[in-house]
Specification:
mainly alpha, Growth Hormone, Chain: A, single chain, 2 domains, about 80% helix
Length: about 400
């Protein structure tokens, strides 16, 4: 964090605190819905799927709000909604209320993430934004390592305790950040001289028109969607595969072995790799990251009952993750004009639909083909995603941003 403005440091710490809050509660949401609310497996899937899908599409409009309004109150409102949703969610047993509170929780966190990315673009020069994004991604993984054990411990005393602890952490983050805003205010944003700044506030329709006409953004978002299918929910599709080819006990052993490998590599190497990334070498690094994904997926396909091979394949796969995720962020930052950063990041968030889609795809592939075909499909998705990024990158080098 050396050399970052105080606001960026505060936002990084806030991101860590909120991730810990999420990680205390959300990994166990399936258990809570099934055991405490007595929902069937089908209803658990519907509740989580509907709320996540609503949040993904809400983030599209959220990006516009980040561009249109001051980021300071928007950030505080998002954290407050995040906290309130956690407090209220365990008080209601109705499926409709649970969906609503989960959707608000996911939406608030998503819009907050967009606002934080936009702050990096506003207050940091291009060459330092990747450092901030990588630091943020590393802290998010630290949060996911810290939160679940706290959640397990809290749940042993009371099923509502994890929600209360998560809500208190979010409330504390909002109070601390609000005090910092009150005490020091917001710094003066930098001006990106490579892009003209819009003199007028665009309407949502004008913004949507610009986004729809920017083919580079469309290619990058489609490529990100395929990439998200590969890495966002890997524990889920690996579990589905392992239960199909072996049994639940072996699945637990493999997932228990590979998850620490993934977390360790992300936390220790993410920042090291990110220092080598810049807007001139994005495509080369994306090829390298995609190659790691391909080799890792091939390793999963060949590992069979060897736990060490599963761990080695995950180590290689994780190298792809720590390269591709920041590179995708830089691609969007590369093409987004200063006054539409939030809107562009909001569109990029639609790529999370890939994470929602992969359980369906993997279930279909495992049901109707050889189990190993799942990894062939994911390799194909990796290659197609890379091709889409290449096409978008070629357009980015030759085309200007469309204006309303």
């Amino acid at each position: 964090m050396n050399g970052f403005p105080s606001l960026i440091k505060a936002l990084l710490v806030t991101s860590l605190m909120l991730t810990i809050g999420r990680a205390i509660t959300l990994p166990f949401m399936t258990i809570y819905l099934a055991e405490h609310l007595q929902l069937t497996t089908q209803w658990v899937g519907l509740v989580l799927g509907i709320s996540l899908t609503l949040a993904i599409f809400t983030s599209f409009y959220g990006g516009y709000l980040v561009d249109k309004f001051s980021k300071r109150p928007l950030i505080l409102i998002c954290i407050a909604l995040f906290s309130i949703s956690l407090f209220l969610l365990p008080l209601y047993a109705s499926k409709l209320w649970v969906i609503m509170f989960l959707a608000v929780l996911y939406s608030a966190y998503s819009i907050l993430g967009i606002a934080i990315k936009a702050c990096y673009a506003d207050y940091l020069p291009v060459e330092r934004r990747i450092r901030a994004f990588s630091a943020n991604y590393t802290l998010v993984n630290v949060g996911w390592a810290i939160g679940p054990p706290i959640g397990v411990f809290a749940a042993t005393s009371d099923v509502i305790s994890p929600f209360v602890i998560s809500g208190l952490i979010a409330g504390l983050a909002a109070a601390a950040l609000g005090y910092m805003f009150y005490r020091w205010g917001m710094p003066q944003p930098l001006v990106d001289e490579q892009m003209p700044v819009a003199q007028q506030r665009l309407t949502f329709r004008q913004t949507a028109t610009i986004l729809r006409q920017d083919k580079r953004l469309i290619y990058f978002t489609l490529g990100s969607t395929l990439g998200t299918m590969v890495f966002a929910q890997f524990a889920g599709y690996l579990s589905q595969y392992l239960i199909t080819v072996a049994d639940a006990d072996f699945a637990y052993k493999v997932i228990g072995a590979v998850m620490p490998v993934n977390a360790g590599i992300v936390i220790t190497l993410q920042y090291v790799f990110s220092k080598r990334l810049n807007q001139q070498n994005l495509m080369r690094w994306l090829v390298v990251g995609s190659a790691f994904f391909m080799v890792g997926l091939a390793g999963f396909m060949l590992a069979q009952h060897s736990i060490p091979l599963w761990m080695l394949a995950m180590a290689i796969f994780s190298l792809g993750e720590i390269i591709v995720i920041p590179v995708e962020y830089l691609f969007i930052d590369y093409i987004a004009p200063p006054h539409l950063k939030g809107s562009y990041y909001g569109v990029q968030n639609l790529s999370n639909l890939g994470g929602a889609l992969i359980p369906v795809v993997s279930g279909f592939v495992l049901a109707y083909t050889l189990p190993e075909m799942l990894f062939v499909v994911l390799m194909f998705a990796t290659l197609v995603g890379l091709a889409l990024f290449w096409r978008g990158y070629q357009l980015a080098k030759t085309h200007a941003v469309p204006h309303a």
